[in-house]
Amino acid sequence: MALTRIALLVSLCYVTACSDQQTAAPASEALDRILGRSMTQEPVIRDFDPAQVARGQAIFRNNCAGCHGQNAEGTPDWRKPLESGRYPPPPLNGTAHAWHHSTEELKRFILNGGPPGEGRMPGWAGILTDQEIDDVLVWIKSLWPDEVYEGWYTRIENRP
Ligand code: HEC
Protein backbone atom coordinates (compact mmCIF):
# COMPACT_ATOMS: atom_id res chain seq x y z
CA MET A 1 0.00 0.00 0.00
CA ALA A 2 2.73 2.45 1.04
CA LEU A 3 4.73 1.41 -2.00
CA THR A 4 1.74 1.79 -4.33
CA ARG A 5 1.18 5.20 -2.88
CA ILE A 6 4.77 6.23 -3.43
CA ALA A 7 4.75 4.80 -6.96
CA LEU A 8 1.55 6.69 -7.76
CA LEU A 9 2.93 9.85 -6.26
CA VAL A 10 6.09 9.54 -8.28
CA SER A 11 4.19 8.97 -11.51
CA LEU A 12 1.81 11.82 -10.73
CA CYS A 13 4.75 14.08 -10.07
CA TYR A 14 6.12 12.99 -13.40
CA VAL A 15 2.98 13.84 -15.42
CA THR A 16 2.43 17.11 -13.62
CA ALA A 17 6.15 17.85 -13.73
CA CYS A 18 6.14 18.75 -10.09
CA SER A 19 9.47 20.06 -9.07
CA ASP A 20 8.49 22.25 -6.19
CA GLN A 21 6.07 22.26 -3.31
CA GLN A 22 3.41 24.28 -5.11
CA THR A 23 2.77 21.62 -7.67
CA ALA A 24 3.21 18.80 -5.15
CA ALA A 25 0.03 19.78 -3.31
CA PRO A 26 -2.36 19.37 -6.26
CA ALA A 27 -0.62 16.09 -7.12
CA SER A 28 -1.36 14.74 -3.68
CA GLU A 29 -4.97 15.91 -3.95
CA ALA A 30 -5.25 14.02 -7.22
CA LEU A 31 -3.74 11.00 -5.51
CA ASP A 32 -6.34 11.21 -2.78
CA ARG A 33 -9.07 11.29 -5.42
CA ILE A 34 -7.60 8.26 -7.21
CA LEU A 35 -7.37 6.34 -3.94
CA GLY A 36 -10.89 7.41 -3.04
CA ARG A 37 -9.76 9.22 0.07
CA SER A 38 -11.57 12.24 1.27
CA MET A 39 -9.43 15.26 1.94
CA THR A 40 -11.22 15.67 5.22
CA GLN A 41 -10.58 12.06 6.29
CA GLU A 42 -9.20 11.96 9.81
CA PRO A 43 -5.66 10.61 10.06
CA VAL A 44 -5.43 7.33 11.95
CA ILE A 45 -4.21 8.22 15.41
CA ARG A 46 -3.38 5.82 18.22
CA ASP A 47 -4.57 7.58 21.32
CA PHE A 48 -3.90 4.61 23.59
CA ASP A 49 -4.05 5.11 27.34
CA PRO A 50 -0.38 4.99 28.44
CA ALA A 51 -1.38 3.24 31.68
CA GLN A 52 -3.09 0.47 29.68
CA VAL A 53 -0.05 0.14 27.39
CA ALA A 54 2.19 -0.24 30.46
CA ARG A 55 -0.14 -2.85 31.99
CA GLY A 56 -0.17 -4.74 28.69
CA GLN A 57 3.61 -4.74 28.52
CA ALA A 58 3.91 -6.14 32.05
CA ILE A 59 1.36 -8.89 31.34
CA PHE A 60 3.16 -9.73 28.11
CA ARG A 61 6.59 -9.89 29.76
CA ASN A 62 5.20 -12.21 32.47
CA ASN A 63 3.26 -14.57 30.23
CA CYS A 64 4.19 -14.31 26.59
CA ALA A 65 7.79 -13.04 26.29
CA GLY A 66 9.25 -16.49 27.07
CA CYS A 67 8.10 -17.59 23.61
CA HIS A 68 7.51 -14.38 21.65
CA GLY A 69 10.50 -12.39 22.98
CA GLN A 70 10.73 -9.40 25.35
CA ASN A 71 9.64 -6.97 22.64
CA ALA A 72 7.44 -9.41 20.73
CA GLU A 73 10.20 -9.86 18.14
CA GLY A 74 9.46 -13.61 17.87
CA THR A 75 11.86 -16.22 16.54
CA PRO A 76 14.05 -15.12 13.60
CA ASP A 77 13.12 -18.21 11.57
CA TRP A 78 9.43 -18.11 12.44
CA ARG A 79 8.39 -19.07 8.89
CA LYS A 80 10.31 -22.37 9.02
CA PRO A 81 8.72 -25.33 10.77
CA LEU A 82 10.81 -26.95 13.52
CA GLU A 83 11.96 -30.55 13.32
CA SER A 84 8.74 -31.47 15.08
CA GLY A 85 6.86 -29.97 12.12
CA ARG A 86 5.43 -27.29 14.38
CA TYR A 87 5.95 -23.58 13.87
CA PRO A 88 8.03 -21.41 16.24
CA PRO A 89 6.44 -18.33 17.87
CA PRO A 90 6.11 -15.52 15.31
CA PRO A 91 6.87 -11.84 15.97
CA LEU A 92 3.82 -9.83 17.06
CA ASN A 93 5.52 -6.46 16.54
CA GLY A 94 4.14 -5.71 13.10
CA THR A 95 6.81 -7.56 11.09
CA ALA A 96 4.81 -10.81 10.71
CA HIS A 97 1.08 -11.24 10.18
CA ALA A 98 -0.59 -10.67 13.55
CA TRP A 99 -1.87 -7.41 12.05
CA HIS A 100 -3.83 -9.35 9.39
CA HIS A 101 -6.37 -10.13 12.10
CA SER A 102 -9.02 -7.99 13.74
CA THR A 103 -8.93 -7.37 17.48
CA GLU A 104 -11.76 -9.86 17.86
CA GLU A 105 -9.87 -12.58 15.96
CA LEU A 106 -6.67 -11.96 17.90
CA LYS A 107 -8.54 -12.11 21.18
CA ARG A 108 -10.20 -15.39 20.25
CA PHE A 109 -6.82 -16.80 19.21
CA ILE A 110 -5.22 -15.81 22.53
CA LEU A 111 -8.13 -17.22 24.53
CA ASN A 112 -8.21 -20.55 22.67
CA GLY A 113 -4.56 -20.95 21.62
CA GLY A 114 -3.25 -22.07 18.25
CA PRO A 115 -4.92 -24.71 16.09
CA PRO A 116 -4.06 -28.19 17.43
CA GLY A 117 -0.88 -29.59 15.91
CA GLU A 118 0.29 -26.32 14.39
CA GLY A 119 2.51 -24.78 17.05
CA ARG A 120 2.43 -24.64 20.79
CA MET A 121 0.58 -21.44 21.43
CA PRO A 122 -1.35 -22.16 24.61
CA GLY A 123 -4.87 -20.88 25.27
CA TRP A 124 -5.25 -18.27 28.02
CA ALA A 125 -8.93 -18.63 28.86
CA GLY A 126 -9.23 -18.95 32.64
CA ILE A 127 -5.64 -17.70 33.14
CA LEU A 128 -5.83 -14.12 31.87
CA THR A 129 -8.96 -11.99 32.23
CA ASP A 130 -10.64 -10.32 29.26
CA GLN A 131 -9.27 -7.01 30.47
CA GLU A 132 -5.72 -8.39 30.64
CA ILE A 133 -5.95 -9.71 27.07
CA ASP A 134 -7.28 -6.32 25.92
CA ASP A 135 -4.32 -4.64 27.66
CA VAL A 136 -1.80 -6.99 26.00
CA LEU A 137 -3.35 -6.35 22.58
CA VAL A 138 -3.12 -2.59 23.06
CA TRP A 139 0.57 -2.93 23.95
CA ILE A 140 1.13 -5.17 20.88
CA LYS A 141 -0.57 -2.60 18.62
CA SER A 142 1.52 0.17 20.14
CA LEU A 143 4.61 -1.60 18.67
CA TRP A 144 3.37 -1.61 15.08
CA PRO A 145 4.91 0.95 12.70
CA ASP A 146 2.49 3.74 11.68
CA GLU A 147 1.87 2.39 8.18
CA VAL A 148 1.19 -1.12 9.53
CA TYR A 149 -1.23 0.23 12.10
CA GLU A 150 -2.95 2.41 9.51
CA GLY A 151 -3.31 -0.52 7.09
CA TRP A 152 -4.68 -2.71 9.87
CA TYR A 153 -7.08 -0.03 11.08
CA THR A 154 -8.55 0.80 7.68
CA ARG A 155 -8.44 -2.59 5.92
CA ILE A 156 -8.78 -5.16 8.70
CA GLU A 157 -10.36 -3.70 11.82
CA ASN A 158 -12.80 -1.45 9.93
CA ARG A 159 -13.11 -3.50 6.76
CA PRO A 160 -15.25 -1.46 4.33
C1 HEC B 1 4.69 -21.70 24.69
C2 HEC B 1 4.99 -20.64 23.75
C3 HEC B 1 4.00 -19.49 23.61
C4 HEC B 1 3.53 -18.65 24.61
C5 HEC B 1 3.82 -18.69 26.11
C6 HEC B 1 2.68 -17.70 23.92
N1 HEC B 1 2.64 -17.93 22.58
FE1 HEC B 1 1.62 -16.87 21.19
N2 HEC B 1 2.19 -18.17 19.75
C7 HEC B 1 3.04 -19.25 19.93
C8 HEC B 1 3.17 -19.99 18.68
C9 HEC B 1 4.01 -21.21 18.44
C10 HEC B 1 2.36 -19.29 17.75
C11 HEC B 1 2.12 -19.66 16.28
C12 HEC B 1 0.75 -20.25 16.16
C13 HEC B 1 0.77 -21.70 16.44
O1 HEC B 1 1.39 -22.35 15.63
O2 HEC B 1 0.18 -22.13 17.44
C14 HEC B 1 1.76 -18.18 18.46
C15 HEC B 1 0.92 -17.26 17.87
C16 HEC B 1 0.39 -16.15 18.49
C17 HEC B 1 -0.46 -15.16 17.87
C18 HEC B 1 -0.93 -15.18 16.41
C19 HEC B 1 0.11 -14.47 15.57
C20 HEC B 1 -0.24 -14.33 14.11
O3 HEC B 1 0.66 -13.94 13.37
O4 HEC B 1 -1.38 -14.59 13.70
C21 HEC B 1 -0.75 -14.22 18.80
C22 HEC B 1 -1.60 -12.96 18.63
C23 HEC B 1 -0.10 -14.64 20.03
N3 HEC B 1 0.58 -15.81 19.81
C24 HEC B 1 -0.16 -13.93 21.21
C25 HEC B 1 0.33 -14.40 22.42
C26 HEC B 1 0.12 -13.73 23.69
C27 HEC B 1 -0.61 -12.41 23.87
C28 HEC B 1 0.71 -14.52 24.64
C29 HEC B 1 0.72 -14.30 26.13
C30 HEC B 1 -0.55 -14.09 26.78
C31 HEC B 1 1.31 -15.65 23.94
N4 HEC B 1 1.07 -15.55 22.61
C32 HEC B 1 2.03 -16.65 24.58
C33 HEC B 1 3.67 -19.61 21.10
C34 HEC B 1 3.43 -19.04 22.35
Automatic annotation (TrEMBL):
**May I ask which residue range the UniProt record assigns to the signal sequence?**
1-17
Q: Which organism is this entry from?
A: Nitrosomonas halophila
InterPro entries for this protein = Cyt_c-like_dom, Cyt_c-like_dom_sf, Cyt_C_IC, Cytochrome_c-type_DH
Q: Which domain of life is it from?
A: Bacteria
Q: Which Pfam families match?
A: Cytochrome_CBB3
Residues of the Cytochrome c domain = 51-144
Q: Does the keyword Iron apply?
A: yes
The name of this protein is Cytochrome C oxidase, cbb3-type, subunit III
- Which UniProt keyword terms apply here? Electron transport, Heme, Iron, Metal-binding, Signal, Transport
Instruction: Extract the GO molecular function terms from the UniProt entry.
Output: electron transfer activity; heme binding; iron ion binding
